[in-house]
Amino acid sequence: MSEEQIRSLERQFEERIARDEKIEPKDWMPEKYRKTHIRQMSQHAHSEIVGMLPEGNWITRAPSLRRKVALLAKVQDEAGHGLYLYSACETLGVSREELYDQLHTGKAKYSSIFNYPTVTWADMGAIGWLVDGAAIINQVPLCNTSYGPYARAMIRVCKEESFHQRQGYEIMIKLANGTPEQKEMAQDALNRWWWPSLMMLGPTDAESIHTEQSMKWKLKRKSNDDLRQQFIDQTVPQADLIGLTIPDPDLKWNEERQSYDFGEINWDEFWQVVKGHGPCNKERMKARVNAWEEGEWVRDAAMAYAEKKQERKQKQVG
Amino acid sequence: MSDKKNWPLWEVFVRSKNGLEHRHCGSLHAADEDMALENARDVYTRRSEGVSIWVVESKHITASNPENNGEMFEPAHDKVYRHPTFYDLPDEVKHM
Fold this sequence. Notes:
By secondary structure, chain A is mainly alpha-helical. Helix content of chain A is 69%, strand content 2%. The N and C termini of chain B lie far apart (65 Å). Chains A and B meet through helix 4, helix 5, helix 7 and helix 13 of A and strand 2 and helix 1 of B.
């Protein structure tokens, strides 16, 4: 194809997206569109998979059966969400094995929030309430993104995600209304998860390298700073309602903007964690790689068994 | 990466209730058809989304190529006489 032809195809492609048409796997697409989508969708899938680890930590120690079944179901959903997203990603011609390999070798990133430790039961509440809350704000606009398989996966994910946030907030309500020690535990979890949750919505607009192209392709509908403001405005009253205090001395209602002003985010911490120096980066990757490697014999045995069954069937036919 | 054989890819179709068709809902990896069905149940019907599941190995699906959509689908575009609105009826005939 000549450069001229490619440019013309690209123009038609951008026009289709501008008209709100969806792009499907076998359609022509610019190489950059394909690459960007593989990157974002796999990063998203990896986050779901690694995101199971901090919560898996508390399944056996959940304080009641009710809490345990809910947490188990939430973690199972995260496995499911990872799988929807990996399969959507594979429609772009990348194999599951390549994707896993990128995660396990550190070539691909996942959400930095999962590199923080879950030290008390209240962290299960804070994660559901804040981390899933921030994730929902990020994800809802993606139900309308231009790549069909991604949009469809996100619709399923968003439908299932709202229970995650509610179960987390319910844990916080219970603790906040409990003994002084329990309330303190809830406050401590909020103190530790608040800032990382704000960072989850991405670097400030000035620092965000992908925003403009992503907006065009509807991989992004609102800027990181707008999403962050939305998250803060919706979460502060929820904290007030249960008597917990947001750990930000500069947080103040701005009557004129009808929004909260908030303090400076420690972006050095954010970049440190992204670069692999968070409290649990190594531990998370080690757990993930172990799970994959120790499962190898199971995968091989299942494949060998499937082949043996197939051979037997063919012999009977023959 | 190992050179061992990986679990193949399967496409999953779910009937949400009797009376409705099976609909494609995604794909997954499994060693064989029995495992594909079980995985499909766990991945795609955790909230009673289905009463019946079909799985088919992805390599068995033949798909049309969107680049040939012209030859493929255009013949239908100029056959307006296949639609009821092509026919003129007097206003007195209310429903037909």
